[in-house]
Amino acid sequence: MELQPESDSQPAIDPTQLIMHSIAAPWTKERTFEYWRDSTNLESHFGQSYDGSIAQYIGTQTRADANYRANLRPDGTGAVSIETASNDDHSDPWTPEQVEGLIKLGVWMHQRHGIPLRICRTASDPGYGYHRLHADWAVGGTACPGDARVAQFKAVIFPAIVARAQGAPVPVPAPADRRRLDEEVR
């Protein structure tokens, strides 16, 4: 699902980060594509449905505007972004299928682009993050993703990316573990 003219007209980047977003809408990856195509001049590299399926809209070596200043660096480095389906106020946790898809994408980004296996320490530091982690990643700040997803990123997704990238299989947490994570957020 390639976005045009953005795929051909946006500047090239050397991807050094993966930033995870929540779109604040319960959309499929197809509906997210339509939104990027028809309703805004912003876009993300990838979109993810609740069922965990992922679509790519722009190549990972092309700038996507959803990352704000994360793709306007003078050295040509930039961030790859994924917008994920969520409820309207992005307060819900990622589904187990979304978690698995994010882990696989994170491992692929490490293998394909050498994204270092660490959480971004600053807005320009190579690694992994979520949209609200650094103010330079959002015009005027953002609450995206919500607390439940930030907790999942820290406790499940990022550790699993690291483990799998280093060759260890990591299962998605069982429902009881997901409930525990949800309770920790509250």
Present the secondary structure layout:
Elements: H1 6-9, E1 14-22, H2 29-38, E2 46-48, E3 54-56, E4 77-84, H3 96-113, E5 127-130, H4 147-165, H5 175-185
Parallel strand pairs: 1-4, 1-5, 2-4
Antiparallel strand pairs: 2-3
* Arithmetic mean of pLDDT: 84
Number of E-state strands: 5
What is the structural class?
alpha/beta
Shape verdict: globular
Provide the succession of SSEs.
HEHEEEHEHH
Annotation field: number of helices: 5
| N- to C-terminal distance | 37 Å
The biggest beta sheet is recorded as: 5 strands, mixed
Strand order, sheet with most strands:
3-2-4-1-5
Task: Please tell me about this protein's structure.
The structure is a single chain. This protein is of the alpha/beta class and about 190 residues long. The chain has five helices and five strands; from the N terminus they run H-E-H-E-E-E-H-E-H-H. It has helices spanning about 5-10, 30-40, 95-115, 145-165, 175-185; strands spanning about 15-20, 45-50, 55, 75-85, 125-130. The protein has a five-stranded mixed beta sheet with strand order 3-2-4-1-5. A hairpin with a 5-residue loop joins strand 2 (about 45-50) and strand 3. The relative contact order is 0.18. The model is unreliable at about 180 (pLDDT under 50).
